[in-house]
Amino acid sequence: MTGYGLASYDSGSTKYTVEIKSLNSKFLELTLRIPRSFSDKEFQLRNDCSKQLERGKVSLSINIEQVSQAVKAAGIDTVLLKHYFQQLKTVSDELNEPTSNLLQLALGLPEVVKYDDDAVSDEEWKIVEQTFQKAVAAFQQFRLDEGNVLEQDIKARIGIIMDNLKKVEIEEPKRVPVIRERLNQFLADSVGRENLDQNRFEQELIYYIDKLDITEEKIRLKTHCEYFIETLKNADANGKKLGFISQEIGREINTIGSKANDANIQKLVVGMKEELEKIKEQLLNVL
Questions:
Q1: How many alpha carbons lie under 13 Å from residue 178 in its C-beta half-sphere?
Q2: How far apart are CA 281 and CA 11, in angstroms?
Q3: 3-state secondary structure of 94
Q4: Terminus-to-terminus CA distance in the chain, angstroms?
Q5: Which of 8, 11, 70, 83 has a Cα at 20 to 30 A from 100?
Q6: How far from 44 is each of 40, 57, 61, 127, 268, CA to CA, in Å?
């Protein structure tokens, strides 16, 4: 959801600039910095951003710069100017200060010089709106380029998880003979081999091995990973959905680890967890 877009238009006398910046956020958090003359367009801008930008901590700024020195001044409020001037003159006389620059000071006080920026013409708004759309297009292209990079990275990490799962399938059959020998030796040392009921031992061993079986977890993990890749290819915004699938992937990985009872499988599980955590970090930046 990080992104950046910039667009400008120069009419000759006025330069219009629209800049859009975005950081990660679960929701759309929009901050607008626009000229006062465009305050009546704020709702429309927010609505357009909500539809097109969807999520992110977005900052939108519109800047209007007068290229020529001619400023659209509507006039001077002479009544307010005289009022300010008289007050300044009274204070200057009381303080015995020079009065040569009072007019200049009065002209700089609030609301004396009024500018014709309270209303935006349809033509000017059309220019700003077109510039805004160009900035949005640049912003979306930035996101798309970043998304392509993220997609390749996430696919590679899912691939590593799948590779580790294949290695787990290779290591898994090796567990039963080791567990069998370990339990057999333990019982022989504890009660003596001659006192061992082999039939009962086999029954208990089958029960114990069944508790450590990870066949279902392997199948579900593989299915979740395949569904993750399928969802990743979808053109719709699926960042949240990918997050939910990653949680299911993590659940299966954790269960395999808790049932492993094997050092080699545990190492592979740790590797899968590491890749999954990196995927989750990347998903924070996916719409």
A1: 10
A2: 44
A3: helix
A4: 6
A5: 70
A6: 8, 18, 14, 15, 53
Query: For residue range 258-278, what is the model confidence (pLDDT) as tens digits?
Result: 888 788 999 999 999 999 999
Q: How far apart are CA 186 and CA 196, in angstroms?
A: 11
Tokens of 175: 């567990």
Cα separation of 188 and 142, whole Å? 68
Model confidence over 117-171: pLDDT tens digits? Answer: 555 678 888 999 999 999 999 999 998 898 889 889 999 999 999 999 999 999 8
b (16+ CB within 10 A) / e for 126-161: ebbeebbebbbebbbebbeebbeebeeebeebbebb
| Calpha distance 236→88 (Å, rounded) | 65
Cα angle, residue 153 at apex, residues 276 and 27 outer, rounded to 5°: 70
Look up residue 80 and give its two tokens.
């307010």
Which pair of structure tokens corresponds to residue 7? 């667009």
Please name which of 221, 208, 223, 220 lies closest in space to residue 259, comparing C-alpha atoms.
208
Specify the pTM. 0.64
